[in-house]
Every structure is written in structure tokens, then in C-alpha cells.
Amino acid sequence: MPFPGYVLVFCGLFATFCSSLNLPGYALQANGRLFETEDGKRFFWQADTAWGLFHKFSLEDADRYLTDRASKKFNVILATALTQWGPKDKNRNGDLPLISQDPTRPNEPYWKHVDRIVEMAFQKRIRIAMVPAWGGTYFFSSSNKPGILNGTNVKEFGHWIGKRYPGLPKLLVADINPIWTNKSAVVDDYRNRRSKTHKMTDYSPVYDKLAEGLISGEVEAGIDQETTPAMITIHPTNQWFTPGPIAISSAFFDNRPWLTFDASQTGHTNYQPNPPMAWWNAEKPYEAIEAMYKNPKPRPLIDNEAHYENRYINGKNRDGKNTVWTAKDVRIGNMQSVFSGASGLTYGSDNVMQGYIPDVYKHDPSGPAVSVWSELSLAGAGQMQWIQKVITDRAAFYSRIPDQSVIIGDVGAGEEHITATRDSTGSFIMVYSPTGKPVTVETKSLSIGQVKASWYDPTNGTYSSFEYLTGGSSQRLFSPPKSTTHPDWVLILEVV
Ligand SMILES: *[C@@H]1O[C@H](CO)[C@@H](O)[C@H](O)[C@H]1NC(C)=O
Ligand SMILES: *[C@@H]1O[C@H](CO)[C@@H](O)[C@H](O)[C@H]1NC(C)=O
Ligand SMILES: *[C@@H]1O[C@H](CO)[C@@H](O)[C@H](O)[C@H]1NC(C)=O
User: Fold this and answer.
1) Which N-terminal residues, if any, form the signal peptide (predicted)?
2) 184 CA to middle of ligand 2, Å?
3) CATH 2.30.30 matches 400-495
4) Ligand 1 within 6 A of CB of 141
5) Residues of the chain with pLDDT > 90: what percent?
6) Dihedral, 348, 350, 352, 357 alpha carbons, nearest 10
7) Buried residues in 219-249 as b, exposed as e (16+ CB within 10 A)
8) Ligand 2: does its nearest atom lie under 6 Å from the Cβ of 104?
């Protein structure tokens, strides 16, 4: 079915910028802990991260990038409207985002370019999850001075964004802590293992106003907030200081009606124990998912920034060895998160995330310098679709639950952690073994019937079935096949 193109809707006689991107069917909605499209089709969030997509990419680049991502079944791209490079930085076409750095005066050519990329993405079945404004640039500057967005103007800016881009999921805050003002002081305290010396300023009232503006803008664009509430979360920063809420959106904004989906950032680093969250660790992304899943308010939940492929482990080459996260690391982490109850996954690779186009932009040395265009074909980027596939190949999408009690014995930790998910109505059990070690499975939750058993290869999406004998104990030992290319396998038991 062809997707409709966008239509510019003009309203009001004297309105200068009174237009909305009208993309029928764009909005996502929540169904319990899962996403679905606004016409009620199930939706598995498979996101890539390209913060600089609107800013650093020409239309031709955007087409090349989005075509590649669509071919790998990505259906969401995280991108930033007012970017981390600030209001004085021109986009690839030479346009500034704002006139006179005034957040209430958008510079139309800049936003036309954003429009075209949003529309181009949707024609390729990809939705943009938009960061309206990068927190640590626009709410306060990197030198910790007040930014140009504040309680006075943020609602008007939010309204304008909500009205122009209705239906796009929005990520507020953007890799910063809403109650965090002086990053260097926080980091200083953390590194020196000192109790808190820094002062915190609570920016959450400003983000509340941003959300209020986004929603009123969507209403003006004609989106019924009763049937299709705006999808809004925050993109928290990593858990790299104490005290403070843990790095998940609901830890900050759980009581806000505008928080319609939950998100974590498990980040790129394995921190030393950092009480009270000793476990915050890039190799244990499933723990943040488990924490969100326990929330009695059922919202869709996502790890919005898990370790990026080809990024240095522990940040800017701190281990001195240039070791990077690999396809195996990101595959294991995302598979564990999804089996632990996430509504999808977020992938990122270091150079695509930052939009490193050699000879045009400088490289941020958080990983080796590799052109965006070569990095598109990293193995992990191609493997994320097999995580989506193993979930969406099962008809029982809405009744899937995480259930570790299916695994008998030690479930292990970090990259060895075994995760299990099953249909609460009994049609399947799936167990992901990242190490390929044999695993004992409690099968009694399966409904009565003939069971089809198979091993699923998470590096290429291939099933190989094996014989499953009925009768005997409900606890069964399964030994994954051996492969020279990868250790991990998914066991699938399904009633046919
Ligand atoms: C908010 O920011 C604008 C600049 O964008 C500035 O003119 C105004 O004084 C600020 N208001 C407050 C209350 O800080
Ligand atoms: C931020 O913290 C650093 C490190 O403690 C300190 O040197 C600096 O003065 C602080 N800046 C502001 C604006 O408070
Ligand atoms: C997938 O990988 C397995 C090895 O793990 C191999 O046997 C199989 O042929 C591959 N299938 C495809 C479709 O590439």
C-alpha cells in the first residue's frame, strides 16, 4: 500500500508559519506496554540513532542513509531538531535554525529541510522520534550558563514544534538530567568519589511547559488527544552520578500525564559500583528494562541509548586499548532487553550517531573515525532486524511477557545473562542463551498440544527445527548448536 505524501495545511489569514506536516497514519499509540500504529497494528520499535540527520545531512545523504536503514528494517530514527551544535551552527545547506537565536522565530528554510527528511523517511516506512531541542545546549549552555530556552519561551516553541510535527514521537531533555545544572561539578564529585558538592537546579518545570506546548500544538494540528495522545518521553542521560533518580524517564516524571512511554539510557560504560544503583552498567541493559517493566503504570518502554557499536568501551578510550563495542555486544544487549520486556530496541553506531562525514565535519573521538557511509554496514546494524523478526514471527504479540522462572538454575549476569520470554496464554516459550551453554527450561506453561522446537540464529534470522519428544519431565535440558561465528542462540518451543 503506497504511503500518502505530506500535505501542507495552511490556516488563518495572517499566519506566516501556520502549517503542519500532515502525515496520515504517522502517530504511534500505546497498547499497555507495547506500541502500535494509530490504526491498531502492532509495532515493534527498531530504532537507529542519527542525532544530526536534519542538520548534517543533505537531502541526498538523507536518502542514502534512510534507504540503507529501511533495507535493514529500521522503522524509527532518533534525530534532533535544535541540535547539540547550537543556534549559531548552520545546517548543511547553510541555514540557521532560528532568526536572531530566538526560539520563537524559526528560520523557515531550515525547517523546510527538516520537513522533507521527515516525509522522505515516512515514505520508507520510517518514523522520526524527534528531540525538539538538545538539553545541554538549549536549556543551559555547556559552560552551565542559562540557554536560550526557558520558562518564558519554551511553551511557545513547544507549541510550534507540536503543531508542525504532529504525531512524531518526541524525546525531551536529550541526554542530560532534568535536575542537573553543572555537569563539570557533578563529574568532578563522581570522579573524586565525593559526596555531593554541586548545586542542582530543577529544570523539570521547564520540560513540563515544553510538553504542554507540544500537546497544545498537536491539538491545533487536529490530533485528537483522547484517541491518539502525543507520544512523549525523555531521553535521560546515563546514570553517572549520585544522588538523583535513576536514568529512566519515569524516575523523574512518573506522575505526569504527558509521559506516554518510558525510556532508559544504559549507555556505553561499565561503571564501578555507584550506590545506590550499583548495577548501572552498559552490559546489564536488561536491569533498566526490568525496573521499567515493574512500574504499575503500563507504558511502552525502550532503552533509548544502549552501547553503540564501534564506540570505545567506557567512553573516550579510557581503557587505553581502543577496545570498541562489537556487533556481538550490541546484539546480546538488545536481545536481552527485548526478552526482558522492552517494546523494541534502539541501536546506534558511533559515527552514524554523530554524523561523521569526512572532509565536511570534524570527528568526535568517542570511537575510531570511520565514515558514516562505511559504518552503515557494520554487522550489528544488519542484525537488529533478527531481533524484531523473532518477536513478530509469533502471532501472540500482545500476550508476550518476560519470565525468568522459565529458566532452571543460574541465569548468569552481564553478557552471560540468559533471558526468557513466553506467551502468557501458552503458545510459546523463547529462551535466549548468549553463551550457547546448555539450559534447563521449565516447559509447563505451554498449552497442551504438539510442540515444535527450533533454534534461531540471531545473526541471520534462520530457524533450524529439531525433534521434541512429548512426555517425561516438564523440565528439559537443551543444548544449543555449535557455531564458529557466534555463541548465542534462541530456543523456541511453540505449540502448533
Ligand atoms: C529566556 O530566554 C530569552 C532568550 O531566548 C531571554 O531573552 C529571556 O530574558 C529569558 N527569560 C528568563 C526569565 O530567563
Ligand atoms: C561548575 O563546576 C565546576 C567544577 O566544580 C566549577 O569549577 C565551576 O565554577 C562551576 N560552574 C558554575 C557556573 O557554577
Ligand atoms: C545462518 O547461519 C548459519 C550458521 O550459524 C548457517 O548454517 C546458515 O546457512 C545461515 N543461513 C543463512 C540464510 O544465511
Assistant:
1) 1-20
2) 6
3) no
4) no
5) 79
6) 180
7) bbbebeeeebbbbbbbbbbbbbbbebbbbbb
8) no
